[in-house]
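Q: Joint fold for the lines below.
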Amino acid sequence: MAFHGLDYYGIDELLTEEERMIRDTVRDFVSSRVMPSIGKHFTAGTFPRELIPVIGEMGLLGSSLTGHGCAGTGPVAYGLICQELERGDSGLRSFASVQSSLVMYPIWAFGSDAQKDRYLPEMAAGRLIGCFGLTEPDFGSNPAGMLTTATRVDGGYRLNGTKRWITNGSIASVALVWAKLDGKVRGFLVPTTTPGFTARDIHGKWSLRASVTSELILEDCVVPEDAILPGVEGMRGPLSCLSQARFGICFGVVGAAMACYDEALSYAKDRVQFSRPIAGYQLVQRKLVDMVSEITKAQLLNLRLGRLKEAGTLRPPQVSLAKRNNVAMARDIARDARDILGANGVTDDYQCGRHMLNLESVYTYEGTHDVHTLVVGQDVTGLAAFDG
Amino acid sequence: MKILVPLKRVPDPELKTKIKDGAIDLSGASWVVNPFDEYAVETALRLLENGDAGTREGGEVVVVTIGPSEAAQQVRSALAMGADRAIRVDAEDKAIDALTVVAVLQAIVAEEKPDLILMGKQAVDGDANQVGQMLAGKLGLPQATFAASIELAEDKASVLVGREVDAGVEYKRIPLPGLVTVDLRIVSPTAVKNHVTPDAFAYGDGPRYASLKGIMAAKKKPLADKTLADYGVTASPVIAEKGVELPPARPPGQKVDDIPTLVQKLVEEAKAL
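A: Joint structure:
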């Protein structure tokens, strides 16, 4: 059965024809190529690598960048791509977010021409995968405290440190590693074949199982002069990448929420208990209506966010507010959907349980719910509730 | 080489059909390109390009639709896949039957003079399966229907079409210009050969997804808006829809306690044994 999404307020009319076509194309792709196998990948704990070439051919990687083989779509189209991918699985959207926003974007924004030529076309085609090494075992919400260092050596830099919770880590050919050089945070493009570089997968995850998550270990890992990103220094580098990626998450989780709503609605209409389908009972209707209400609000919020980004006036705390709101609403919807599906909701015959588990990670990564609360809190009060 | 692909928009066949007042209720329908026509667009592109290199030297794919202004959206999706330009002839879906469609296409073929007309074997809304055959007949062109494979000769003067028939696969060579209607298997990985794409190259199964670049390029491609009158055609359908109804609901199944009861019921009630 084809997926048609939820559009209770006719928000489609506010999209351009191009944005709708891009959304519908990715939606078709997810219905026919992702849905048949994603549940099996999640259960097995494997990433659907076979999809990468098609995703590359479609131009979904680095889609909002210009030149170097990238399509140059607007931000709303980029957001809608994330929404549709995450309707399939948060792991798939995470793959695309990391490749597009956390690796291709900084190369595009802060890289040398040689770095752009070397990496961007290959990454856009999906032939070269990247990962983003910022978080460390002891530095999550406080990345500026990182311990990874770079020191100058003859002809390059020596990197030492450990990065953790790195999406795409062991399938990447290049790692963008953030490290302190003379006390200042700098980005280094480290080919993963460099001696001293090791990626180890993190197993036993209850969430994002259809996604690769790794630990990166850098032991006297020497990279040449031209591995450093020349265009940025300090935390502005990684934070600007995260702002791009979070924008995609704001849209992405609406896809997961719509998938759960869709499943809960059709289940509730079919499942008969006592005298009628459970959709006919008031308590179930309230849950379904809450879902419609929250999804519709999030859709409008996203669209406005996208138009602000298009106009170049979007401020990072505005992204924080949407990330905080939308991920929490998606997580609640996934839980309510699971509830409506009863015992069936805890099996892998249905998707809401998978989304419910995935969204726990999304709630925490790319800035936890609480940290985004404090970012907006600081923005509106002028008082920082955290150090840094 | 110029290939003309007529395409029709149809209500999404994956959605449940709703019937109201003896007709199919299309008020909330979502529309898609008739799947077989989409396969024809895919076939046309494969015939002209080097699938391995992802390049195309010359050739032109022109798509045509006859439908209301909203049908421009389906035409755009063919342009996004890679067709070069489009013609939309304005008409209400209800006001045209197969003969009207054939009359319009006949006039367009006279104007465009394509080397090959490629179309779906049928539209999945009415399942009439007659436009291709009638059009070839009216134009006096050779035709090969239900193509499951197609090979463009090196001199581009003919096509060899494989058709799946009861006894196996029948191969038919027709000279160009000619008309070919396509069946499902035409979009399997190696069904289209053109002596440009290496023979060993395998496409993905099914029609391609439009790429983002294709979608963005589509809005700049020419789409000519025409009327029936531009082609000297008046919509005077000879076929009218008299009524539509759903098949009767099937009686629910029965559960039986043991095998003897099952056998008894099969013999006495179902009369299957």
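Q: Anything notable?
A: Chain A has a mean pLDDT of 96. The CA atoms of residues 175 and 190 of chain A lie 5 Å apart.
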